[in-house]
Design brief:
Layout: H1 6-13, H2 15-25, H3 36-48, H4 53-65, H5 74-89, E1 105-110, H6 117-130, E2 135-139, H7 145-158, E3 162-163, H8 171-185, E4 189-193, H9 201-218, E5 225-231, H10 237-249, E6 253-257, H11 267-275, E7 279-283, E8 291-293, H12 296-304
Parallel strand pairs: 1-4, 1-5, 2-3, 2-4, 5-6, 6-7
Antiparallel strand pairs: 7-8
The structure holds guanosine-5'-triphosphate (GTP).
Amino acid sequence: MSETPWLERLRGGFKKTSDRLGDNLTGLFTKAVLDEATLDEIEEALIASDLGPATAAKVRDRLASERYERGLTEAGVREVVAEELAKILAPVATPLEIDAFPRPQVILVVGVNGSGKTTTIAKLAHLFLEQDYGVLLAAGDTFRAAAIGQLKVWAERIGVPIITGPEGGDPSAIVFDGVKKATAEGIDVLIVDTAGRLQNKKGLMDELAKIRRVLGRLNPAAPHNVVLVLDATTGQNALSQIEVFKEVAGVTGLVMTKLDGTARGGVLVAAAEQYGLPIHAIGVGEGIDDLRPFDPEEAARAIAGAPQKSEA
Ligand SMILES: Nc1nc2c(ncn2[C@@H]2O[C@H](COP(=O)(O)OP(=O)(O)OP(=O)(O)O)[C@@H](O)[C@H]2O)c(=O)[nH]1
């Protein structure tokens, strides 16, 4: 367990994002009235913070409808931003839950190389272990030996079994073995790593389709979840990755990582607003405890740089 409480890590993680929002808003607060020009500037500042045009427009409308008799303060705007972001994030905040039946539940994890997929798989496994579920990993990214090796290291570190195969082997064979082993041993969750070769979209699509066919023969409901891992530092590019992976992989939910390394964390809100896909968890660091189920209000307040409710 990390020494630092989660809320502090969350706020630390979003600090660059909320500072950027503050920088973008600075200078707007000397004005006595909230006129059209100031509203326009605030809207632009929000767009520049990666929150997306639709979100920026919502905040603008809300600010325009408020009466600021005692003047406009930065804290006041941050509060309104936090409230509006929470409204956008709340409907998509969905923990990754395990149904009672059938077991194993199969979670395919997809995303481009370097997005934090391997680390996220380990973190998700850790979250499931905390809930007393049995977890099995499957190293389905057989394209690169390094990917297999890295997942093995994580499996050992967190103490979960793993199915691997040779580099260049058939990922669907590994998935098949994974389901067989999980079924025979009564393991609750099978988490499958997949290749992230977007540069070969057709190849990746075929590979994922084959994994699905194999899974479907063993358990018609599988995969129960297809989780796309997105790297927040890629900003708006993360949005186009959603588009592509929806098409190639039938994504059912998102995990956004590396929110600690970027001022572009606002893209989390843009993703929620634009795609409405469930957001299961967010990553704010490299440690095993740095991924937590997604709490919309906490995240909204951290992005907006407003004090957390528990601190108010
Ligand atoms: N700061 C930070 N780093 C992260 C986070 N998640 C993952 N990382 C780091 O990002 C790098 C890439 O993560 P991996 O898990 O290896 O990513 P991957 O998508 O499996 O990448 P490949 O192995 O290249 O396919 C590693 O150095 C991780 O430690 C996060 O939430 N915050």
